[in-house]
Design goal:
Layout: H1 2-15, E1 17-23, H2 28-33, E2 43-47, H3 68-76, E3 83-88, H4 91-95, H5 100-113, E4 118-121, H6 130-139, E5 142-149, E6 154-162, E7 168-177, E8 183-186, H7 217-225, H8 234-241
Helix pairs in contact: 3-5, 5-6
GO biological process, one term: tRNA wobble uridine modification
GO cellular component, one term: cytosol
Protein name: Elongator complex protein 5
Length: about 270
């Protein structure tokens, strides 16, 4: 993992950028031990590892001091700095103790302030709500998401880069840590010997029920033979529609009390 930091260090040296590191999770001695001796003078460590919350007054930087003004002051104290890079090894420490809205505002101020050219942050996505993670990632031009795949034999790095023109570039890389702690990086992992088995079997919703919903062949045949009460069979339809041999008619003879009116045979006009 620190070899990757060393490669970034050489790029920083070519651009003559000073790097300010806010260390919450890794001690300064461990970070310095992995740096190239020719580039150590470019790094400025601000200790937040020994006392991140400032309870014992032993850290040069604490969670409560996270603000655009304080960080800008730390950066400008460096002499002859042509450009500065800010590295926060764990933004999760700050997110857990500050309002996420205030953090986004402070990061935006640092981005627009001019004292810092690039901000690199590590955020543990599994410690925060998805909405908070998306809000912070929305501020970034480049987001690299690292997840374990293939039974943890590989790790996948998904890179999303938004250009100033609005175009979004995405790339997927797979890497693994070798026995000598070096990284083996490839575009796609080798599937030989470690192919994942994807099951296409359909889930049976009636498999774990305490009663049986399935019918045997005998039960299915008996069910099909049952005549439904409101469904006419073809034989019954033919019998009802068949014209009979005889014919019937209704004969009605009105009496004197019927007061039959030919113009109002239904007797529904009241005039």
């Amino acid at each position: 993992m620190w070899r990757g930091r060393g490669r970034r260090t050489r790029e920083t040296h070519d651009k003559e950028e000073d790097v300010h590191v806010l260390g919450f999770e890794v001690p300064e001695q461990e970070l310095r031990s992995e740096l190239d001796s020719n580039n150590k003078h470019l790094f400025h460590f601000h200790n937040a590892y020994s006392d991140p919350l400032g309870w014992r007054k032993q850290s040069s930087f604490t969670v409560e001091q996270f603000s655009a003004e304080n960080i800008t002051r730390l950066v400008r104290e460096t002499k002859h700095a042509k450009a500065s890079v800010l590295v926060i090894d764990s933004l999760s420490w700050i997110v857990r103790h500050h309002n996420p809205v205030a953090i986004c505002q402070q990061l935006h101020k640092l981005k627009k302030g001019g004292a810092i050219r690039t901000i690199c942050c590590l955020l543990h996505m599994d410690l925060h709500q998805q909405g908070i993670v998306e809000s912070i990632c929305h501020l970034a031009n480049t987001v690299i998401t690292v997840t374990a795949v293939n039974n943890a034999l590989y790790a996948e790095a998904k890179t999303t880069h938004r250009k100033k023109s609005g175009k979004v570039m995405q790339e997927e890389e797979f890497f693994t840590v070798m026995e000598n702690l070096s990284l083996s990086i490839e575009k796609r992992p080798s599937q030989s010997g470690h192919a994942q088995v994807h099951s296409d079997a359909k889930v049976d919703p009636a498999s774990n029920l305490t009663f049986n919903l399935r019918l045997s062949e005998v039960e299915r045949e008996a069910k099909e033979k049952v005549a439904l009460p409101f469904v006419f069979s073809q034989e019954k339809k033919s019998a009802l529609l068949k014209k009979g041999q005889g014919s019937g008619r209704i004969i009605y003879e009105p009496d004197a009390n019927d007061d039959f009116d030919e113009e109002d045979p239904d007797d529904d006009l009241d005039i």
